[in-house]
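Hi support team,

I've been running sequence recovery on a batch of backbones for a student project. Most finish fine, but this one hangs at about 90% for roughly twenty minutes before it completes. I'm not sure whether the input is malformed or the queue is just slow. I've pasted the structure tokens below so you can try to reproduce it. Let me know if you need the job ID as well.

Thanks,
M.K.
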């Protein structure tokens, strides 16, 4: 089963002083490079956020920029033609190819769950997503829209769902 990926990078990074999370250094690359590496088998790779010089990536931007993750999802979804789409945020260094494989293996709408549901780590039927999107998705909660799709919860492995939101997260990222 082929699939597309939508990677949301448009957050403001306010708790990190306005830093561009996609450009944060991780291992010998950036967080965006890392997330792209775990979905390198995706038929389409759509990144929603400020455009960078990366081959093989389709760029999208929510209108207006800063309209929230649901608006970003809608902008990315407008660019894909695959039946299944993996939706990820850029600030997730714990993601692996296995994470994506387990979500896809569910064979239905699926989200990763550790101590809570990780709405920005999921695999979705694109037609279901399109039907669930509100006409104007700006500043509306992503969780509420995705919850209506009754996803199966896939258990996260330790550290798999960690993200980078605070200076402490950034310190952990650089020391790990």
């Amino acid at each position: 089963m082929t699939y597309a990926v939508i990677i949301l990078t448009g957050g403001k990074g306010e708790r990190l002083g306005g830093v561009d999370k996609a450009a944060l250094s991780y291992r010998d690359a950036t967080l965006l490079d890392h997330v792209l590496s775990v979905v390198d088998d995706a038929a389409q790779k759509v990144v929603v956020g400020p455009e960078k010089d990366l081959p093989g990536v389709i760029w999208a931007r929510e209108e207006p920029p800063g309209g929230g993750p649901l608006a970003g999802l809608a902008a990315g979804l407008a660019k894909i033609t695959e039946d299944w789409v993996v939706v990820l945020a850029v600030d997730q260094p714990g993601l692996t190819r296995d994470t994506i494989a387990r979500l896809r293996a569910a064979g239905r709408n699926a989200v990763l769950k550790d101590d809570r549901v990780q709405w920005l780590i999921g695999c979705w039927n694109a037609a279901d997503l399109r039907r669930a999107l509100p006409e104007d998705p700006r500043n509306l909660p992503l969780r509420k829209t995705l919850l209506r799709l009754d996803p199966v919860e896939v258990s996260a492995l330790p550290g798999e769902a960690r993200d980078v939101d605070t200076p402490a997260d950034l310190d952990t990222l650089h020391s790990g």
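--
Follow-up from support: It reproduced on our side and the slowdown came from queue contention, not your input. The beta strands are 4-8, 25-26, 29-30, 44-48, 58-60, 84-89, 110-113, 117-125, 152-155. No action needed from you.
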